[in-house]
Amino acid sequence: MFLVLGEENELFVAGVVHEHPRVMGSDGESEEASGASDDLVRMRHKNVSRVSKEDISKRLSLPADLHLPETFLAKSPVSAILEGPLTRNIRRQSLAEIGFGRSETYTKLDKLGEGTYATVYKGRSKLTNNLVALKEIRLEHDEGAPCTAIREVSLLKDLKHNNIVTLHDVVHTEKSLTLVFEYLEKDLKQYMEDHGNYMTTNNIKIFLFQLLRGLAYCHKRQILHRDLKPQNLLINEKGELKLADFGLARAKSVPIKTFSNEVVTLWYRPPDVLLGETNYNTSIDMWGVGCIFYEMADGRPLFPGIDVRDQLENIFKVLGTPTEERWPGIMENENFLRYMFLSQSVDIHNRVPRLGQDGINLLFALLRYEPKKRISAAEGMRHPYFDSFGPNILKLPDTASIFTLPGVALSKTSQNSRIEAKRHSLLSL
């Protein structure tokens, strides 16, 4: 099986040169014996010589840094690629001949991690010589490809955004399905650990905006990520943050009355889902954004529960036990009533004062009990907390990096700042 990524190109009309031209004289007879055919052959070679690798790459929507193999240029039907409509079959055949969809195109380097169904390797593409991440999913003979893998491929192939990880290729063999992603050095959890679990307010703001930007793009297309956590947010050496691991993502536009409530890692799961709600929307992701926002600011998870009840108790301890006034309909939720939670409340303002009033206001807007009142990703990008970036950051093309704007850059963390943050963290325990 070969899965073609990317969208079909626009039709390109050029002069057609037949593979075996037959020239007719004035009397209707063939003049192949004359010099006319030689002239056309020379014209054909002249036309082909004008074809550049860039033309082919553009026509096939290939990455700019991809090196077309000489063997492909030598034996591929260039006229079929560049002249007339580019059919799905021609494009698929061309990509296969270039090396897409083939395991030998990628070299495994180091194992990065291993899960129940998949192993992730650091690798290198022979087509671009760039590093890639190879997510190798083991296939069971009777079961085939896991639904999570199929879902991830079907969604990611249509998502083209600077803050969403790029899926370059899919390789299918008898024993495995390998997803080939762009390689990013670390995830947000590793980044925080590498910086002593302390981030400058500038860096928090930069990473949060990129998270909201990627989510806004997904939510506009009615795609719910459903598994936001620091481990699923990847960061490259430039500081670009990208949403990754769409294995639990779903398209809300799919006509399903209810979704599963067994989604989102426990610490980042919203209370409505914890209490059994299955008819949720994009607000499920926004709660997770709030938890990650706090974690970047404080260096510790906000709600580290060990099971559903403990998770809810952690939430209510920090944000207060919900009332009918704060969360209309909560007193009719059977799960909530069954748990018989004690009324309690702790002021969260004192935990992260360095976020400033705008930052704390945004945090509370994300952590609203009532799902429909949580701020959306698009609204969050326009929150006063981000005013320091200026208005042009909202005008960037989807595939552009926010670091192309003047003044947007990550800052270094001083030792004194880390010590002060650690001292405050200990005092707030």
Automatic annotation (TrEMBL):
One Pfam family of this chain: Pkinase
Keywords: ATP-binding, Kinase, Nucleotide-binding, Serine/threonine-protein kinase, Transferase
Protein residues bound to ATP: 135
Enzyme Commission number(s): 2.7.11.22
SMART domains in the record: S_TKc
Recorded GO MF terms: ATP binding; cyclin-dependent protein serine/threonine kinase activity
Domain Protein kinase intervals: 106-386
Enzyme category, top tier: transferase
GO cellular component: cytoplasm; nucleus
Record bears the keyword Transmembrane helix: no
PROSITE patterns: PROTEIN_KINASE_ATP, PROTEIN_KINASE_DOM, PROTEIN_KINASE_ST
Domain of life: Eukaryota
Catalysed reaction, written as an equation: L-seryl-[protein] + ATP = O-phospho-L-seryl-[protein] + ADP + H(+); L-threonyl-[protein] + ATP = O-phospho-L-threonyl-[protein] + ADP + H(+)
Stated family: Belongs to the protein kinase superfamily. CMGC Ser/Thr protein kinase family. CDC2/CDKX subfamily.
Protein name stated in the entry: cyclin-dependent kinase
Provenance organism: Galendromus occidentalis (western predatory mite)
